[in-house]
Amino acid sequence: MILARAVQATRRYGDVTALDRVDLELPAGELVGLLGPNGAGKSTLLSLLVGLRRVSSGRVELFGGDPRDPAARRQIGMTPQETGLPPTLRVGEVVDFVSAHYADPVPRAELLGRFGIDDLARRQTGGLSGGQKRRLAVALAFVGRPRLVFLDEPTTGLDVTARRELWDGIRQFHADGGTVLLSSHYLEEIEALAHRVVVLGHGRVLADDTVSAIRDLVGVRRVSLVAPELPPLPGVRAVERVDGITHLLTTDADQLVRDLVHSGVSFADLEIRPSSLEDAFLAITETQPDTQPQPDAHMQSDAQAQSAAQAQPDGQVQSDAQAQSAAQAQPDGQVQSEPQPGQPQPAQPADV
Ligand SMILES: Nc1ncnc2c1ncn2[C@@H]1O[C@H](COP(=O)(O)OP(=O)(O)OP(=O)(O)O)[C@@H](O)[C@H]1O
User: Fold this and answer.
1) pLDDT value of position 322
2) CB-CB contact of 142 with 69 (8 Å)
3) Ligand 1 pocket check: which of 11, 12, 44 to mutate, most ligand atoms within 8 Å of Cβ?
4) How far is CA 226 from CA 57, 230, 256, 257, in A?
């Protein structure tokens, strides 16, 4: 059963296309990671799925209906990227206040215990550390025994221990049959929790696959050196020249160094670093047909030719599951309607 779905969902803010024809299906019982660099469109996609924003074109569904329907929204939980907590209320009071919106809430002590903050129940939220506030904000998403939870970068600002406690809480919900879509910048976080990961870049789904397949995709190293000119080298995914330094992105740095030496080219200041996820995304997204080149860093990508064979005409790399869902998609996108005035809203008022 599909709990949430986006079909060719597009969202524009003025001239900015934050999401561009995104297809996504969230089956019951899955814990799915949404991975992407800053500005990729993760928060926008979550806000469409929970009914806080509406699509510019395409459509989104929650439990088979309109995400703006209060009956659907009562069955979800969400932690946005930023949460304002009333500073003078105690942690327990905040939990009680949110609990009062639901017919069968999780008891306060049980909820706080699940997220390792039961000792904070009597503390005013204004006096909590950033990490403690974050854990409370995430815990609140689970108070109404939701079927489906959306978490937008849940562990931002948490130390290692707090992050692990929070992961445990999310894992427990999933083990009990809950469904989760969580966004993150960190592959490590997605890897710790999810089996499936959807990679967003420039508002598009770049990949929808298992975590291990995505890890291979982003297992890129950055080899930097100073060299007058380089011959064509096998295995180079992208070349970037900044301030006289050439950066080569490759999945096999050892082989690249051997090839460099064998080529006889003179080079200096060789440095090999794991590329950041941002680097990897840059290399992948540079293969997109509508991506503009950076003004101060010219990237040439050999991956373009390689991935063109696997890629769809619109530049997306699709998994089998995605291809299947695209086949079932409706050809004509339906725009979500506004909620009627006076309708009760169990979650935050819609900001469209
Ligand atoms: N309210 C808005 N008005 C104008 N542009 C917006 C608005 N919200 C988001 N955007 C733009 O849409 C794009 C996608 O933003 P979004 O917040 O969805 O990305 P994100 O992947 O969640 O980023 P981050 O990881 O930094 O939170 C960005 O270019 C952003 O500047």
Assistant:
1) 35
2) no
3) 44
4) 47, 10, 15, 13
The answer to whether the beta carbons of residues 237 and 216 sit under 8 Å apart is no
Q: Closest ligand 1 atom, CA of 185?
A: 25
Can you tell me which atom of ligand 1 is nearest the CA of 11?
A: 12
For 117-131, the pLDDT digits (tens) are 999 999 999 999 999
Q: Which residue has the tokens 């900001």?
A: 351
Burial class (CB in 10 A: 0-12, 13-18, 19+), 142: buried
Give the distance (Å) from ligand 1 centre to CA of residue 286. 19
Q: Would you give the distance in Å from CA 267 to the centre of its chain?
A: 39
CB 59 within 8 A of CB 334: yes
Question: Is any atom of ligand 1 closer than 6 Å to the C-beta of 325?
Answer: no
Measure the CA–CA gap between 265 and 272, rounded to whole angstroms. 18
Which residue's CA is minimally distant from atom 12 of ligand 1? 18
Residue 9 and residue 19: Cα distance in Å, rounded?
7
Percent of the residues in the chain that have a pLDDT greater than 70, as a whole number? 77
The pLDDT tens digits for 13-23 are: 999 999 999 99
Cβ–ligand 1 distance for 36 under 6 Å, the answer yes
What ipTM was assigned to the predicted interfaces of this complex? 0.98
pLDDT of residue 279: 60
Say yes or no: CB of residue 41 within 6 Å of ligand 1. yes
